[in-house]
Amino acid sequence: MEKIIKLKERKKKMKETLLKILEEYLKVFPEEAERQKEYRKYLEKAKENEVADWNNFDGHTVATGFIYNKEIKKFLVVHHRDLDMYLSPGGHVDLEDENPLNTAKREVKEETGISNLEYININKNKLIPLDIDTHTIDYNKRKNLPEHHHFDHRYLFEINKTTEIKIAEEELSEYQWVEIDKLIRNPKYEIIVNKLKKII
Which residues, including other chains, have CB under 8 Å from residue 124's CB and lie 6 or more apart? Predict the structure, then answer.
C-alpha cells in the first residue's frame, strides 16, 4: 500500500514539475509562447500517470543532453538505429528521475558512458532547459510504436577533455564529434543551435 501511495505521489509531482518548468522557461523565452502551445496543451490535458508513460501516444516527455567538448570544440552525436540519424544522447523521462535534468544525465551515461559532465545552467532554477522542442517521431517498425510527439527538454553539458565513449549498442550504432554548424543538418536542431552559438 505504501508503495502505491509513493508511486501516486511521484506521478503527481512529475506533472507539477513539468508544468512549473514550462512556466519558468517561458519567462526566460517569452517569445516562444506560440511554439510551446502544443506542449502546454499536452501537459494540461494529460493525467498524472500519463506524463511519464511510454504507452501514452498523445506524446512522450523526453530529455536530451547536448555535450560540448571544450578540448576539441565539438559536440557529441550518436547514430540511432531506429531513426537512422545522428542525435544528441537522450531518452524518455521516468518517474524515478524526478525531473528531466536527471533524465538527461542518466540517458547520457547510459548511451555514452560519460559521467563527468559539467552542467551549464542558464537560469537560477537549474531545471530550466536551454530549449524545449516539440517534434514528431515516425512509426517504429521494429518496436511497432505508432507515430507520436516528443516534448524534448534540452540541456547543455561540457566536458574538459576527450573521454572514452561506450555507446549503448542495442539502440546506437556509432558516434561522432561534430562542429556546431554540422548539428544543424538535423532540422530539429535549428533553434537550439542558434541558442548554443550565443553561449559557446
Answer: none
Cell readout for 38 is 502544443
Distance (Å) of CA 146 to CA 90, 106, 142: 20, 25, 11
Length of the chain: 200
Alpha helices in 92-157 (DSSP H): 100-112
Give exposure, 163-197, as e/b (b: 16+ Cβ within 10 Å). bebebeeeebeebebeebebbeebebbebbbebbe
Whether the model pTM is above 0.90: yes
CA neighbor of 24 nearest in space, from 141, 157, 94, 129: 129
Going by C-alpha positions, the residue among 19, 58, 24 that lies closest to residue 40 is 19
Using CB atoms within 10 Å of the CB of residue 66, give its burial: 0 to 12 exposed, 13 to 18 middle, 19+ buried. Answer: buried
Print pLDDT tens along the chain (200 aa).
455 446 668 878 999 999 999 999 999 999 999 999 999 999 999 999 889 888 888 899 999 999 999 999 999 999 999 889 999 999 999 999 999 999 999 999 999 999 889 999 989 999 999 999 999 877 777 777 777 889 999 999 999 988 899 999 999 999 999 999 999 988 899 999 999 999 98
